[in-house]
Each structure stands twice: as structure tokens, then as C-alpha cells.
């Protein structure tokens, strides 16, 4: 078992990781720890471990780190383990993963897996990226692209609030050209999701399931400061589905073609720019989950 951890994480996150590692060691589980130093390290370390025959690769971090590890082990026999130490931990909430150190260690020892179907993003340059929870183009991606990483480490979710207020004052809300089911429409914001939750445990797509085929395309037709502010208020209240101009439906493919060069965020990290074509990954991914 390989545990991939970012040593730059805050003290609270480091303590959770150390408690999980300690519980695994006490239970006699053999593991190694690999530290990351920069973006992309988790994916590289995971790919090297899976290539060397490692059967379990554990991501200790937030949704971005987990997605990196998933990209590294995709197409191999390795299973993904998760020690949730991120800001939002959306994927962990989606699968009902534990947050207490002892429960996490017990889950990893048992090794029960659930096969999820990641989404696949294919960019205009030919580069591919898998996402586990969601991918966004529009206002949310602008917030992620401009987010101050140091501020995020200091105040967590508060950094998103700060950057959201900044972007409300400056984002031009360009119209997106979106292709769904062979038809092209215009929208202000698109969130393609494999699961129900967004931004933590905020319900966005109640019918979405991470182990089901297809992507739920959540389309916000209305743009502008007022529409974005209303959507931001509706999300924590569970009222997004009642917004005018909002629709959500399961699709096999989804394309966001124009305008080119807009930021694309996936699982909370900036991963590329438009145009981007979305579909299911070619193979499911085994993820370690609590024993039923």
C-alpha cells in the first residue's frame, strides 16, 4: 500500500494523516509514504506505483489530489484509497467515506471496493484528463483559476468566498456554446457531474450516481452578476433545481466548444481550457469504501 501525501498541508490535515498511518502500522499493515512537492507529483507517483505492481494507492488530500491519483492508476489493477483531508472533500461525501482516523484505517485494511465510472475530458490539444466528481466551465472555473492557494491554506472555504466576490465584480460572463445530444445551445455556466454533490454536501444533481454510465449536464442558461449571486444563494438551500433557466439531464457526451481559451476546472483544480469534450472514462475505477 502506498500513501501519497502533501507535506505542505496544514497541521490539522497532517495530524489526521499521521493518525491514520499510526493506526495502519499498529494493525500490522505494510505501507510506504510518498510526499508530493508540486502539482502533478501525485499522478506521477501513483502511475509509478501502479506500474510497479502496487495494488492499493491512497490519496491523502482533497478532491484535486484524489483526482490526480485516479489519473495515475487508471487502466491498471490498482485500487484507489482515500484519506480525506481537503477543503470540501466532495468525493468523500459522495461515497460516504469516513473522516475519523480509526474508521479510515479500518476501511483501508478491509479493502472493500466499489467501482465508479470517472468522467473523461478531452481537450482541443488532444490531452485527456479524468474527473471523479465534476467539471465546470464558466463562473466557477473562473473562481478556481484565480484562487489564491496560500489564502486557501490559511482560511479554507473562506478563500472561495473571497474569490467569488472578486469574480462577481470582474467576470464578463461570456456565452458558452454547448453541444448536448447533437443539439447546440447557449449557456452561461455548465457543470458536468458524476455525483450528486457540489462544493461539499450541497445537492446539485439528486439523480446522479458515480457508478452509473453517463454524465449529468447541469446547465445554467442565465448569466450576469444577479443570476450568479442567486445561484450561489440557492445552492446551500437545495433550491438550484427551481432556478429559472436551469436544467439537468443525463447524457452520454457533452461538448463545450466556444469561446476558446476559457478556464476549465475539474474536482476543484484548473485542468485546461476550452474547447473540451466530455464522456465516460473507458474503464471503471475501483475505490475502497466502508464495509457494507
Treating each run of at least 4 consecutive H or I residues as one helix, how many helices?
9
Approximate helicity band? 25-40%
CATH architecture of the largest domain: Sandwich
The number of distinct β-strands equals 20
| Percent in strands | 25-35%
What is the string of SSEs from the N terminus onward? Answer: EHEHEHEHHEEEEHHHEEEEEEHEEEEEE
In terms of per-residue confidence, which ranges show pLDDT below 50 for 5 or more consecutive residues? none
Our Rg estimate from Cα atoms comes to: 19 Å
Largest sheet: 6 strands, antiparallel
- Specify the overall morphology: globular
Q: Would you write up a description of this structure?
A:
- With 292 residues, the chain is an alpha+beta fold.
- It folds into two domains: 2-111, Rossmann fold; 119-280, Tumour Suppressor Smad4 (Sandwich), CATH 2.60.200.40.
- It is 33% helix and 31% strand.
- It has nine helices and 20 strands.
- Helix 2 packs parallel to helix 3 (63-73) and helix 6 (139-146) crosses helix 8 (158-170).
- The mean pLDDT is 94.
Task: Compile the SSE list and pairings.
Layout: E1 2-5, H1 11-26, E2 32-35, H2 41-51, E3 56-61, H3 63-73, E4 79-84, H4 90-95, H5 101-110, E5 113-116, E6 119-123, E7 128-131, E8 134-137, H6 139-146, H7 149-155, H8 158-170, E9 176-180, E10 183-187, E11 189-193, E12 197-198, E13 202-203, E14 215-220, H9 225-237, E15 246-251, E16 254-258, E17 263-266, E18 269-273, E19 276-280, E20 285-288
Helix pairs in contact: 1-5, 2-3, 6-8
